[in-house]
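Researcher: Before we compare anything, I want clean individual predictions. No alignment, no superposition, just each chain on its own. First chain goes here; please echo the sequence and then give the structure tokens.
Model: Echoing the first chain and its structure:
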Amino acid sequence: MVATLNPPQKRLTTQTAEIAADTITIRSLDWDRDRFDIEFGLQNGTTYNSFLIRGDKVALVDTSHEKFRQQYLDLLTGLIDPIEIDYLVISHTEPDHSGLVKDVLALAPQAVVVGSKVAIQFLEGFLHQPFERLVVKNGDKLDLGKGHVLEFVNAPNLHWPDTILTYDWGTQTLFTCDVFGMHYCSDALWDENLRDIEPDYRFYYECLMAPNARSVLSALKRMGNLGEVAQVANGHGPLLRHNVAELINRYQVWSQEQTKGEKLVAVFYVSDYGYSDRLSQAIAHGITKTEISVEMMDMLGADQQEVRELAERASAIIIGMPPSSGEKAQEASTVISTILASVGDKQLVGFFESYGGDDEPIDPFLTQFRNQGLTKAFTSIRIKETPNEATYQLCEETGTDLGQLLSREKSIKQRKSLDSELDKAIGRISGGLYIITAQKGDVKGAMLASWVAQASFEPLGVSIAVAKDRAIESLMQVGDRFVLNILEEGNYQALMKHFLKRFKPGEDRFEGVKTQPASDGSPILIDALAYLECEVVSRMDAPDHWIVYSQVNGGRVSKADALTAVHHRKVGNYY
């Protein structure tokens, strides 16, 4: 029986439910949140899930976001006297899950904080108070009594370096925090409707887990030592019970695909310093769109042998600027020295500022690597103000450009490998000429397209094939809105030439182009023959494209007698 508290018209609500024997979830529902750490948008809000396990001893698994402080604490103290809480399990220390740790410890000072070594170190850094602690490593167990034996699984880099998973042998429940989660807010406690949550589950994986695909596979392998997983108590979105095996297997399949790339980019960052982790994730997400493998490594606590092996294997190295003073600076300096000693002259290197207030300058490091014979991968990313949507777009597009550069040789080989007659035959499929324009917040995008077709009568709908490595792909998620600008035969050359240019990361695609805003703010090209205002309904995963089906909500023709520009090809292995 699910008990929903607070009036539904309020946009911050809470919910409790018994999910297994002696196990209660406390869910904080954030209905209106439309950004998460800025780097990717949310269409369906999010939740922050916490759990209470009552054996002979009591464990609280994770807390909530600080915006829910009073609601969460009132609910927790209504369920249990905090003095009865024996353990506070920290899956990881990101503020949306540990934002109320200090408040909980104020009510339950006797509680022993359970976490990975890195998590305990992070907590010391922001709690600034003594607390009882229990550092756990992979395979360690904690017996709460009444059959509730908790076993811990190390899962570093999913998606923070301090992450652990917790398995309750008594209820076969796996507590996973970010892993197997999604930003999807609804009153539904469980994953009954797989179709509803699939897009958000995949998008969440692509943004946070794909850049750490090797770490995902390592964690899945460690999970093999656990018993059957009957349900997943994740940290965001509905809990998993009805589709557990399917959704866990998708992580396996997606991660195996992600790590198949012949080339690898190593991204080094400094956790809990400035915006290093978030900026590195945005860059890594851009790279993964090109099917180039990525491996991320926190420079704090990194094993030097692992640093050396990763640096030697990588085709490109990306480094986030560490602080110039303090303990973190010393650790990061050791890592960068190891990288320098391991790289060769056929590799690429790039740098980004962390905006931590004490960044090492980029140029001396760039000089050292170039003296080793490495080639500059991209224009160094220098952050002059608090990172915003445009900053993250710049980082993502920088990553995508690098991935395209590394995969160029393979792409050319694939084009040449197609049978010439088949190639010519497929090339006879014609299409129109269109420009897709979109805006989400401060981020704008545009793309020339020809693989467009009407897909339904009622409601009116269109399908568009969008290459996975296109920048605008991030603005065409389910629920996003965009404009399909239809070009005019005999009057399309100027627009086509402009949008065929290779824009620099973060560059304004619309400079010098006449536009007017659509109802959702997306640019309408004034010189287009017609336009359609569209909303993405679903996306089908094809090998190298997303097939985006969208409902058409409005449109207009500027010249009733003019014809749509037609695009004829001679070969089918290129646009």
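Researcher: Okay. Second chain, same rules.
Model: Second chain and its structure:
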Amino acid sequence: MTLLLVFVLFFAGGVTAVPAQASPTGMEFGARVATRGGETDQAAVQRMEQTAGHLDVVREFLSWDSAFPNSFHNWLKSTDHTLILSVKSKRANGASVLWANLVAAQPGSTLYNDMVRWADRIKAFEAPIYFAFNHEPESGASQALGTATDFIAAWRKIRGIFNDRGVTNAKFIWIMTDYSFFVGSQARNDAAKWYPGDAYLEAMGADAYNWHNCRTGISNPWKSLEQIIRPYRDFGAAHPDEELWLTEWASTEDPAVPGRKAQWIADAQALFKRPDYAQFRGVAYFDYPFSGSGNCNWLTNSSASALAAFGTMGNDEFYGGTVDPPDPPDPTAIEAVGIAGSNGNLVNHTVQIPGTVRAGDTLLLFFSSNQNPASTTGPAGWTQLRTADPTGMRSRVWTRTATATDAGTNVTVTNSVINKADLMVTAYRGISATQPVDVHAMTIQTVTTASHPAPSVTPTQGGDWVVVYWADKSSTNTGYTIPTTLTQRRTASGSSGGHITATLADTDAAVGIAPTGTFTATGATTSGTTIMYTIALRPAEQ
């Protein structure tokens, strides 16, 4: 591929869109490459290309007052590499260039002339460029630069200046952290709050990392790239005219599972061949040392298997290489789209359906109480799936197919007496409209123990996702350690004597037509009564 791509994190005004130049049968592939052993930037790229083949894109980070282009940038241009150029709103000496000051800058002022100078240099570069201003503006590193309102106004102003200066070789790309697409609308760093608008960009990017347990004092479950970027993909789907990019992506190793990072890369290689990821136009791996506290080894040569997997991906003809790619896998049919819950000592218990829910999603409502009220009534419009009434506990499961008006509404379970209970609602997309639940099972445990095996089920068809739920009554338990084969969605625990602790998890992937085996969770302490459900959800009909 011959596209030269420049991601410049900066402000730009009204630039004429450059035609998309990704491969008609694949994607652009590249990296941010760190130098090693005194080598030059050029030598670092050439070293990586010995493993992964020609890099279509190379990402570069510049300060507000950096020189551009330098000899490295010109070499990339002359050798058919795409430059991903990110310019931060800070000077090389660390001084901030506040977004509000850029907005207020008048023609002839120093800051205004800085913006003009960037536009003129990008124009003179001539090669097609992806240009972005201040990547990850919502992150803590950019917090002192201004608000989301300031950022959007600054972005739009620079866009206008670029247009006024006749820049026609640049596309503008807006780059955020993967986390900004997870946090929700109440958070300051919610991606939607920082979006400049479809009219002011041609592409968007996300910086996506599988951290696992590599940061000091922080433990995260191992996540596939799909788990990390799916919310970003969904955000992009609401802006179908914009290209999607992974401007950074990387995984640490798992010391307990050799080869796990290599498989993570191989799974990423297959992911973008799926039709539900067709909006993506390119990926740039972050082959650079971690500078924080911990042992996060992003480098492609963190293990021989990881390096081999990266080379295989780079040489796959789908990513611009010469090796025939394997056939793309079937798209994942099911995804978790939201969960919410409440835990308290009340007569009636209420939970709000997540705002991410859409019409057609399958909702599961779980209720577990520390006593057996004379009556417990579920919400109207829900179908009861399971009941459990061991001495001193009550539990119910209801299902519902969401309507267009369900998101953000309250759901209440009413009881005849006050009770300590946990109520949670979870939503899944891509479920069969005619038979959402394939099979389900329940276990009631009335012995005092910390080990709680949820029942095995046997799906009747391939592609099911399995949802597992545990709830117990105790005075001391505060949570569960769940099997590593599951992804925890929510856990909650009440307080004082006889409270309810509840956890929900799922396989986060399709399972085959075979017994799942039991799913054993371990309580923080023992409990005398535990109720467990295992529910297999059928994928939507193709």
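Researcher: What stands out in the second chain?
Model: The helical segments are 41-52, 71-78, 99-104, 110-125, 148-164, 225-237, 260-271, 304-314. Additionally, The chain is about 20% helix and 30% strand.
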